[in-house]
Amino acid sequence: MMFAASAISLLSALLVSPVVANTTTVVAITSAAVAVARPIVTIPLDKQYVPVVRNDKIVSYKTAYFGKVFLGLPAQQSFTVVFDTGSGHLFLPSSRCETETCLKHNRYNRTSSLSAVDLDHEGRQVVANATQRDQVNIAYGTGEVTGAFVRETICLGDHSGDLETEASKECVRIRVITATELTKEPFNTFQFDGVLGLGLASLAVDPEFSFFGQLSKLNSLPEDRFGYFLSRTDSVPSEISFGGHDSRRMATELEWVPVHKPELGFWQIKVLSVSVAGEALPLCEDGECTAIADTGTSLIGAPRQVSQRLHWLLARKVPDNPSEIDCRTFPGPDLVFELEGGVKVTVGPEDYSRATAMRVLQSKTNSSQVICRASLLPVDGDEVLGPKAWILGEPVLRKYYTAYDWRRQQIGWAIAKQPSEDEVAAAAVAEPVHAVYGAPPTDPPTPTQVVV
Questions:
Q1: With helix as H, strand as E and coil as C, how does the chain read?
Q2: Partners of residue 249 on adjacent β-strands
Q3: Rounded CA separation 94/73 (Å)
Q4: Which of 79, 228, 244, 301 could form a disulfide with 379 if both were Cys (CB 3.0 to 4.6 A apart)?
C-alpha cells in the first residue's frame, strides 16, 4: 500500500546540478559549554557548494549543510543528514536500494541492527520476512523518495556498543523511512545521505516520525528547543544545537516571534510588511503575508507575483564597467521583513546578492552596463500556505541566529556572532571537524554577458 506525504523545502532550492568535488573529513560531535540554556549537543555541519550552470558557465552556487547522526544498536551506523525545518520525516537510503543514486550514499542496513522493528503504515509491527510492505512516497521539490517504515534508535552522538540508550538524552526511538527508491535528480548530486525533518509534529504523517517531537517528549532536555548557526567562513563550521540555543553564536539577545498556524506543521510566522530601501511592497499591506524559516532552502523565496518587482528594486548598476566583481561586496538597498511583536529582520546586498554580475551589451550601440542582481526563488502559492508565502532560507539564516522553541511554538531571532579572527586562525591549525565540498574559486567572478 502506498501513502503520500510532501515537504516544501531543501530540493526546491537545491535544484538539478552536477556532482561536485569529493573530499573526506571526519566530523566530530562537540558539546557547547554555554551558561544559559546549554544545549545537550552541538553538531558541526559539513557544507557543499552546488554550481548553477547557464550556457555552460557557472553563474552562482547554492549550498547544502549537513551533519552526522547515528542509527541502530549495538553497532551504530553513521549517516549525514540535512537538518530541515521545512519537512517532518527522517529518510535514509536502504541497503535494499541498489540504484546508481543509492549506491553513492551510505545505506541503512536493517539486518545489522538489533534495535530495528519493521512496521506498517499504522505503526504496527510486521514479520521480518514479509514479502510485501506498506510504503510512503515523499516529494522534495524536484525529487521523490519511496520507502518502507522501521522503528529505530537514532542518536546525535555515537553510542556504538550500548544495548540500552534510554539514559542518554542524545538518543530517541522514532519511525524512519528507509528509501528503496530515490529519484536520480536531484539526489545524485548531493553528498548527504538523507534528510532529518525538524518541522512541527503535524508536518509528519504520524507524531512518532518527528525526531524533535519525540526527543522533547521522552527526554528531559534543558530546553525544548534547537538553535541554528550559519558561518560566513568555510574554515569554521556552521552548527546546529539541540536542547537549547548557543549564546556563543549570538551578538544580540533573542527576539521571539510566535509561530503562525502551528497546526500546519511549518515554522511559519506572520509578516506585517516587506520593504526595500524604505519602499513597502503593496503585496503585504493587507497583513496576509507569511514567511517560513527554512534551514533546507539556500535562497530567499518570494511569492511569484512580486518576485519580478523585487528583482528590479534590488538590482544595482555598477559604474566603470569592471571586468571582475563580487556583487556581494557592492552596495545596495536593505530588504526588511517586519514581523509580529515589532521584530525586524534586515538583510543587505552581502546576503541576498548573487556573486556573479550580469553584463548587458547593447548590440546597436555596442555599449555595455554591468548589473548586480539578487538571487531569489519564486514561490508558487498553494492551498496550505496561501499565495503570499515567503521562505527565509540561507541568506536570512546566515545573518541571524535562529532558535526554534518547540513547546512555546515560537522562533527567536538574534544577529549572528560570526567567528572572530582568533577563532578562524585556531581552526586553520586544528584538526578539522567538518568538510567543505566543491568550494568555488576565491577570485571575483567575471560577469556573464547578455546581448540585447
A1: CEEEEEECCCCCCCCCCCCCCCCCCCCCCECCCCCCCCCCEEEEEEEEEEEEEECCEEEEEEEEEEEEEEECCCCCEEEEEEEECCCCCEEEEECCCCCHHHHCCCCECHHHCCCCEEECCCCCECCCCCCCCCEEEEEECCEEEEEEEEEEEEECCCCCCCCCCCCCCCEEEEEEEEEEEECHHHHCCCCCCEEEECCCHHHCCCHHHCHHHHHHHHCCCCCCEEEEECCCCCCCCEEEEECCCCHHHECCCCEEEECCCHHHCCCEEEEEEEEECCEECHHHCCCCEEEEECCCCCCEEEEHHHHHHHHHHHCEEECCCCCCCEHHHCCCCCEEEEEHHHCEEEECHHHHECCECEEEEECCCCEEEEEECECEEEECCECCCECCEEEECHHHHHHEEEEEECCCCEEEEEEECCCCHHHHHHHHHCCCCCCEECCCCCCCCCCEEEEC
A2: none
A3: 16
A4: 301
Q: What is the CB-side half-sphere exposure of residue 73 using CA atoms within 13 A?
A: 19
CB atoms within 10 A of CB 251: 11
Cell 517528549 belongs to 217
Helices and strands: H and E segment counts in the chain: 7, 28
Q: At which residue does the C-alpha cell 525544548 appear? A: 224
| pTM to 2 decimal places | 0.90
CA 276 vs CA 87, 257, 307, 349: distances in Å = 30, 22, 13, 11
For the stretch 364-386, pLDDT in tens is: 888 999 999 999 999 998 888 89
Q: What is the DSSP letter of 212?
A: H
Percentage of the chain modeled with pLDDT above 90:
76
Q: In angstroms, how far is CA 328 from the centroid of its own chain?
A: 21
Q: DSSP per residue over 1-28, as a string?
A: -EEEEEE-SSTTTS-S------------
Tell the burial category of 97 from Cβ atoms under 10 Å away from its Cβ (0-12, 13-18, 19+). Answer: buried
The DSSP letter of residue 263 is G
CA distance 294 to 338: 17
How many whole angstroms separate alpha carbon 2 and alpha carbon 287? Answer: 39
Q: Is 114 helix (H, G, I), strand (E, B) or coil?
A: coil
Distance (Å, rounded) from C-alpha 83 to C-alpha 103? 22
pLDDT digits (tens, 9 = 90+) for 67-79: 999 999 999 999 9
